[in-house]
């Protein structure tokens, strides 16, 4: 090739790299480059492999980034035991409730535009929920105040799930088949006929709040939730494998899901995730990859942007990731909750660092972000019901690998 052709090709390559459509990957580094011990970080491999060998999980992915650079990205075990298919770095998994932070971020892009205020009554935008009562002492009573959008984001709305309890309101949810609704509009209409479990703002209670938030996003934006996610979150962050379904071309990369004893719960090639859902669950409907979700997390720890693409303002991210619960209200008795994330209020040494935020998903997926350590961790398995074993194993090993100055 002539010198002029080499020069032309080089210029073309640089232009491609610089073009808006070209997504940069997060850079790699050695642990020592970012103040971590590679020797200690390597302990993750043996520990997670033992979970696989002991048949506690079929497979896993662990990914660690510090100071914006990937220092650990490993896979273990099988994505499908029957077919002997190994977990790979681009394996697609069910993320369930790790959808919630994405829905909340998407909603906050509308808040930043002034399309709603956090303390707006939800019924202002979803009139089907007007006149909601609270179930107290066996009868519906008037609420002390309206449910707000902030309540939806921090799970203080008084809504429930219906599947984790047997209260009178839970039974009403089950009879109405709230989680079996055909679409978000139908879900909201059903919820409008059922009283709240608690007075708004008085208790943290895990619920369909983020699904209602997804319905609100659709209503305010006049855009279907999957399309809104793509435009506001997935495309800017190049989250190329995150969606409400697994397309045919990607089925071979999809993981099966298992129950204890490594019994197949949901086979990768016969899953409901292969079909377009009518109900787009902002509370738990997405599939994704470790790579995609790490990009989402890195955007957050960067203050709302990744590689020059801004999703949220830095002050918005700071507010979302601080405790938003009212006084005397806690999650799990001691923890705080921001807008879409749990927030760690105490320093527990290698078990948790103060200010850490994150969440998990029903198939035993996990992420956490520690701003003071400039650290992001994604740890994924596919085991139901939910187990914290992978997170509990990996988290101390990651924190212990951080070298003291």
Short account of what is shown:
The protein has 405 residues and is α+β, with helices and mostly antiparallel strands.
CATH homologous superfamily label of the largest domain: DD-peptidase/beta-lactamase superfamily
Largest β-sheet summary: 8 strands, antiparallel
The geometry reads as globular
Q: Which strand order does the major sheet show? A: 3-2-1-16-15-14-13-12
Give a structural overview.
- With 405 residues, this protein is an alpha+beta fold.
- It folds into two domains: 31-104 and 224-400, Beta-lactamase (3-Layer(aba) Sandwich), CATH 3.40.710; 116-221, Methane Monooxygenase Hydroxylase, Chain G, domain 1.
- It contains twelve helices and 16 strands.
- It has helices spanning 3-18, 38-41, 43-53, 99-112, 149-154, 168-176, 184-191, 209-221, 225-237, 290-301, 314-320, 389-400, and strands spanning 59-66, 69-80, 85-86, 93-94, 134-136, 139-141, 257-259, 263-266, 287-288, 305-306, 309-310, 336-337, 342-343, 357-361, 365-370, 375-380.
- The strands form five sheets. The protein has an eight-stranded antiparallel beta sheet with strand order 3-2-1-16-15-14-13-12, with helices on both faces.
Record the SSE blueprint.
Layout (H helix, E strand, L loop, with lengths): L2 H16 L19 H4 L1 H11 L5 E8 L2 E12 L4 E2 L6 E2 L4 H14 L21 E3 L2 E3 L7 H6 L13 H9 L7 H8 L17 H13 L3 H13 L19 E3 L3 E4 L20 E2 L1 H12 L3 E2 L2 E2 L3 H7 L15 E2 L4 E2 L13 E5 L3 E6 L4 E6 L8 H12 L5
Antiparallel strand pairs: 1-2, 1-16, 2-3, 4-9, 5-6, 7-8, 10-11, 12-13, 13-14, 14-15, 15-16
Helix pairs in contact: 3-12, 4-8, 4-9, 7-8
């Amino acid at each position: 090739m002539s010198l002029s052709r080499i020069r032309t090709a080089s210029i073309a390559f640089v232009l491609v790299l610089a073009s808006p459509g070209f997504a940069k990957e997060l850079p790699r580094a050695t642990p020592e480059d970012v103040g971590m011990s590679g020797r200690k970080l390597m302990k993750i491999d043996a520990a997670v492999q033992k979970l696989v060998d002991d048949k506690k999980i079929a497979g896993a992915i662990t990914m660690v980034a510090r100071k914006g650079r990937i220092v650990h990205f490993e896979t273990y075990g099988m994505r499908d035991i029957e077919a002997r298919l190994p977990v790979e770095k681009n394996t697609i998994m069910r993320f369930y409730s790790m959808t919630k932070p994405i829905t909340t971020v998407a909603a906050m892009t509308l808040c930043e535009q002034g399309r709603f205020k956090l303390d707006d009554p939800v019924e202002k935008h979803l009139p089907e929920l007007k006149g909601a009562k609270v179930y107290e002492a066996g009868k519906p009573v008037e609420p002390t105040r309206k449910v707000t959008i902030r309540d939806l984001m921090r799970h203080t709305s008084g809504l429930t799930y219906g599947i984790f309890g047997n209260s009178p309101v839970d039974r009403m949810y089950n009879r109405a088949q709230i989680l079996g609704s055909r679409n978000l509009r139908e879900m909201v209409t059903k919820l409008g006929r059922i009283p709240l479990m608690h007075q708004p703002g008085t208790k943290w209670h895990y619920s369909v709040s983020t699904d209602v938030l997804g319905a609100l996003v659709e209503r305010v934006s006049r855009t279907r939730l999957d399309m809104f996610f793509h435009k506001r979150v997935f495309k800017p962050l190049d989250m190329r494998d995150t969606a409400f379904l697994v397309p045919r071309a990607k089925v071979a990369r999809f993981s099966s899901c298992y129950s204890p004893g490594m019994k197949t719960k949901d086979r990768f090639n016969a899953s409901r995730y292969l079909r377009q859902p009518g109900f787009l669950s902002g509370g738990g409907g997405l599939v994704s990859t470790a790579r995609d979700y790490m990009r989402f997390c890195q955007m957050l720890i960067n203050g709302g942007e990744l590689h020059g693409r801004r999703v949220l303002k830095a002050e918005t991210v700071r507010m979302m990731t601080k405790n938003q619960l009212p006084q005397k209200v806690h999650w799990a008795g001691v923890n705080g909750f921001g807008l879409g994330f749990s927030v760690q209020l105490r320093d527990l040494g290698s078990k948790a660092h103060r200010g850490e935020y994150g969440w998990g998903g029903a198939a035993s997926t996990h992420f956490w972000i520690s701003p003071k350590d400039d650290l992001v961790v994604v740890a994924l398995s596919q085991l139901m019901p939910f187990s914290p074993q992978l997170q509990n194993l990996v988290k101390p090993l990651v924190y212990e690998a951080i070298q003291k100055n």
